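I have been asked to look over a protein record a colleague put together. Alongside the sequence sits a line of tokens, each denoting a local backbone shape. I have pasted the whole thing underneath without changing anything:
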Amino acid sequence: MQVSQELIDRVLRLVHAAEYRPSKPKQIATLLELDADGYREVRRVIKQLVLEGRLIYGGNHLVVAAAAVGGPTDQIRGTFRRAMGGGFGFVRPSSGGGSADADVPEDVFVPPGMTAGALEGDLVAVTIEPSRRGGIEGKVVEVLQRARRQFTGTFFSSPQPDQPGADTIEGPVVYLDGVHYEAPVSVGDVRGLPLQDGDKIFVEIVDFPDEETGGGEAVILERLGSSKNPAIDTLTIMRQYALPDEFPEEVLDEARDQADAFDDDIVPAGRNDLTDMLTITIDPFDARDFDDAISLQREEGRWRLWVHIADVSHFVPPGGKLDVEARRRGTSVYLPDRVIPMIPEIISNHLASLQPERMRLVKTVEIEMLDDLTITHSEVHNAAIRSDKRFNYEQIDQFLASPAAFQKEWGGPICELLTQMHQLAMQIRKRRFQAGSLSMDMPDIKLELDRMGKVKGAYQTENTESHQIIEEFMLLGNEAVATWLDDQELNFLHRIHAPPERRKLRQLTSFVKDLGLGIDNVESRFEIQAVLDKVAGTTLENAVNFAVLKSMSKAVYGPHREGHYALDKEHYCHFTSPIRRYPDLSVHRLVQRLIEKKPTPDESFAELVKLGHECSDAERNAAQAERELIQLKLLHFLKKKQGETLEAVISRVFADGIHARCLKLPVDGFIPVTELPGDQYRFERRGQVLTGFKEGNRFRLGDHLTVRIGKVDLQDRQLYLDVVKNHSAGKSDPRGPAGSKSKTSPLRHQKKSDRRDKKKRRRR
């Protein structure tokens, strides 16, 4: 009997939802609000999907989303993601045959010791079973296909003494970067190659090591340079994270064809001509591409806002070589000393860049709102603009501090526009946070480089009001587009931020209680924001912001209409950066078909799930590459300053040591408990403290330290610090009783223990 395609889609949506837990068919029918006839139909749908390998029956006949069923046990195939630390990972099931139509369920947790040596991105076979926590757990039984065979690493002519593998491997080896293998990999005969110990090399693995016994072989593809030379840091990270380098020639040829066909003197037919409307851009001072511009008019009792976004879809037709390459890259990557663009510069920095005094094609989101910020109308249309002036954030901050000083230079109309933009954006921002939106972004680290590309300093970026103006307007534009598309019930890539798990919120609540901030419950957005507000500007700010971020779900791309938790938005997508993000480009294409009144593409839910995963993975990979390169360059900089002292604040406390964030240079270092002043220390979770027996040996979260730069480990990319002085030692804890010294001090605790021992001896 033919089953309903609509019901198939409903079942897949339910089973794929973040809140879904393995359920029996009857429970699924209840969740779908179906009657007895509907239940029978659901059973047939589930049986068919199981036969297709898109669902499986777990233990106790619970239905679990999966990609394939293999063998006599419940088994799935999927992509492995290794967690940072902890020895565990996750498997994202995918179609056994690689079909884009396969449904993709939530990630399967793989506990420590069950990963079978799988690396990030590997295709693996996993046996699964329901876990006691209500979800499912997996065990990797086979690595089916390696995601990567090429890695960077450090060359040595023989294994390093006192390191894993020193007694089992002979001859030249490479210690791989960015993997969990501790033992090196043999690289065979290297005679004739200009290699020295410590050189960074690029290798291809021909025999992967065993997670337990080590071993493995590789061949050298490229000598990158001496590990003592910071100039090769960028190349090392690019190879490690498989970041693309140059564009293929056929892609560049297609971009050149687009440039030849574009006439920036003529507004194409069918576009609103907004070239006479006062329009400006505000971007970082070092930005090279400009994909958003703003126009604003104040009318009686209302505002009219135009958010202009570069119409990249006009230059990158779907299915062409430009499109295929853009999807492969997924995102532009912003490294400290270079940008790896998603789209060739001839488009990203020229044709589609909203440069001043140039006619440029845009998709414009026009929004009308009353003085109370009630949106009365919004629409999206194709337009052409001519930006009147390009500003950077620093200029706007200076203007906001002293508007009159810029009247003569910029003129009255532009100054009035900037004043109105600031007024409206701050109203929107205030209302957004009153409604429950969270401000929990960690500041970015910017490196200061000399002309040779070497680090001469670093600083944390500030989210000043100039940044906030553009941020609020971009959020408004993204929300307006997503609302429009959702109202038409179309499938497209949303920007999804699921609510945090209750378990993680309980852990966050415990952490906040331990700090003695006077906030005993952290369950809602308002309570979380209250915590963030309380620590803002204090020595606890970095640690608490990190703890809040850790408790949150990861924002991802997907077709699910689950809203954005942190922004408190029911409808949300990414639309405002199509030059650098493929999800934005995909939404632009859907918008274009609606503007042209063409049939929307019949893109299946599963296809968009796959695209969402690709884009989320590309975003994650780019962010990790950027963070690691910043860390590597900072370590090179600090290696020359070993022995110097810095001011720092304790940012995290563990039983085996403390992490400290340096103040002048935004870098974290680790201080092992064995390197603290001689004593026996115990970790007190309440208050986040390491406490010794001797007076003054007490290290709390947020304490102010003077530290000395100790070991700089470039291989492990770790900075080790030594404590010179704890400026907070002996001072009362401003956090109150919960964070203050325990009533049972270590010395008192020891005396009690001694008395118990004496009683035991007397009893004997």
Remarks:
- The chain has 17 helices and 33 strands.
